[in-house]
Design a protein that fits this description.
It is built from 14 helices and five strands. By secondary structure, the chain is of the alpha+beta class.
Length: 292
Amino acid sequence: MTKEPNTLGEYLRARRGLVTPQQAGIPEVGVRRVPGLRREEVAMLAGLSADYYLRLERGRDRNPSVQVLESIARVLRLDDDHVAYLMTLVGDRKRRSPRRARTETVPPGVAKLVAGLPHPAFIEGRYFDVLVSNALAVALSPRLAVGRNQLKDMFLDPEEQAFHPNWQGSTECLIGNLRQSVGTDIDDPRFIELTGELSLASPRFRELWARHDVKGQWGAPMEFDHPQVGEMTLNRERLAVGGIDGLHLVVYHPDAGSEAADKLALLASAALPTVEAEPMPERHDPTPPGRR
């Protein structure tokens, strides 16, 4: 029999390890063998018995009340995104039969919209697969071509890492958003495939995944270091595709009149398809030969 995953306990342990005694107002006395707070310290600060908190972390109690979770969240200094994620981890999960990987399909009208946008734009799936992209997105980064996966590129491709001057911050944002997107739906075959591959191949992924950070990814300025035009800052907009779970439209656009706008225009001109000039049709003089 497959053991039920203890997602709540794993999350509490990970977040407990990120809160220092100083942050919690606990004086440090002697040598601490664990990073962050001890279980009994979290229990004390949250107004719980140490035995009950231990049962939560070990998965023996999977149905704490909202009040208990809010008290723990306060001690662990969780923000709104992390609290919302914490609430999804509660309750017994019914055993389900093995799932098939689902196919993510972009509506034709949305694909046409992406193709016609004047800025780099693409549609990403739940696990950051690029499902649709326009020519300017590929000119910005060839790794935004259809079929690529942004998670794998960000953690495993040196060119993509060089493309992001703030690579450390970009990876934190990406993993936080993956946690928020997945929630407790951890038996999705695509999720298992990706996290398994990245956990084996990337120490940075393992480090961030163990933190259990949760963070939404929406609008923000993004820095890029393009191999042809150099450094530039573009605004990122990330918009949910209405009515389709997990699909988002991502658009990068510059500030009007900025140096980034000039560089993006240069990339756009280079991305235009080359059209060969057609030969001029042969001209026929209608004047009869004798009168020329």
